[in-house]
Amino acid sequence: MDDKEFERTYQIENNYWWNLGRFRIIESFVQRYIRPDPSKPMVDLGCGTGATTRWLQKFGNVRGVDASPLALKYCRKRGLQNLLKSDLEKLRLPSNSQEAVFALDILEHIPDDTKAIQEMFRVLKPGHKCLVV
Length: 133
Prior knowledge:
Number of strands: 5
Largest sheet: 5 strands, parallel
Number of helices: 5
Shape: globular
């Protein structure tokens, strides 16, 4: 994404009808299937400018991960602190460390999506859930 697209996304994603509907759909899946423990670590992969990460924090301790320093800059501008710069094909997270993994509207942007999926399951604790949309 270029600078202008990041800025546009940052400006609209909290109030745009598509994002609001998406948040509600994701919330229904999280409540029904994931039921996260608020004290346990979760990760939002490809967090972009951070609106989804911030929204997911109502379910617990969610870390935003993105490969783009500019995306993480917008996350910090949004007030997020629990951030990690990392490629999704080689996550800088320990194995079996996450209670839930979220990959929301990101896989289509990853050059090696198979490797990214392998990494998602590597960092996910056994028996826990990954939400990919």
